[in-house]
Write a structure and sequence with these properties.
It is a single chain. The protein is α/β, with parallel strands linked by helices. It folds into 2 domains: 135 residues, 3-Layer(aba) Sandwich (Rossmann fold); 59 residues, Winged helix-like DNA-binding domain superfamily/Winged helix DNA-binding domain (Arc Repressor Mutant, subunit A, Orthogonal Bundle), CATH 1.10.10.10. It contains 10 helices and 6 strands; from the N terminus they run βαβαβαβαβαβααααα. Strand 1, helix 1 and strand 2 form a beta-alpha-beta unit. Helix 7 packs across helix 9 and helix 8 packs across helix 9. The termini are far apart.
């Protein structure tokens, strides 16, 4: 029995980008490309009736922008993976996309192999960036000179969080109470000045903690 290919949609207000990306993805024969959209409203209507596994989402769109659209997509379909695919390189925009539920951020000048790698990473539950975006985040982090000092236990818990381990499972693995794990989790977020797990993993990667 054949395993169905993951479904993928593209949202970009430039038809030439959609056309080029569609051709490249179809050559890989890894996804079922079920739709391309030039605005968020049309995509939301489509999503409400059609399950989609992966969305490649531009940031600048007519009407609702990509950041707000990302949040709405995740509200409607929490399991849909959203990858930002944009020319915009501002750190604030990158972090806003992650905060709104995106699984990663890829610049449009990335190679098709780099894009495919990021899609695979996101499908495996990891936060992912193209190399150029990762470099931007690292440089921004260095400028802020934020190097968190974690205890050995906090580092251990951080790595488990990054692997997607739940609080109850962490407590079981480390023979700790759930309350203790939650306290460590709060301390780690505070030390790394992260608002959520996605941002925590990004900052931890930038600081070489993972």
């Amino acid at each position: 029995m054949l395993i169905p290919k993951p479904t993928l949609a593209i949202i970009d207000d430039h038809p030439i980008v959609i056309e080029g990306l569609t051709k490249l993805l179809m050559k890989k024969e890894k996804f079922n490309l079920i739709g391309s959209f030039t605005n968020g409203q049309d995509f939301i209507s489509f999503l409400k009736t059609t399950p989609i596994n992966i969305v490649l989402l531009d940031i600048v769109l007519p009407g609702i922008d990509g950041m707000d659209l990302c949040k709405e997509i995740k509200n409607i379909s929490p399991t849909t993976i959203v990858l930002a695919f944009s020319n915009h390189q501002e750190r604030s925009g990158i972090m806003k996309m992650l905060e709104n539920g995106a699984s990663g951020y890829v610049l449009k000048d990335a190679s098709i192999d780099e894009l495919m790698f990021c899609i695979d990473e996101a499908m495996n539950g990891r936060i992912t960036f193209s190399k150029a975006i990762n470099d931007i985040l690292i440089q921004a982090q260095l400028k802020e000179n934020r190097v968190a000092k974690l205890t050995q236990r906090e580092t251990e818990i951080l790595k488990l969080i990054a692997n997607g381990t739940t609080t109850p499972h962490i407590a079981e693995l480390l023979f700790l109470s759930k309350f203790t794990v939650e306290n460590h989790r709060k301390n780690i977020l505070q030390k790394l000045k992260a608002k959520n797990v996605a941002e925590l993993i990004s900052i931890a990667n930038q600081q070489g903690l993972l």
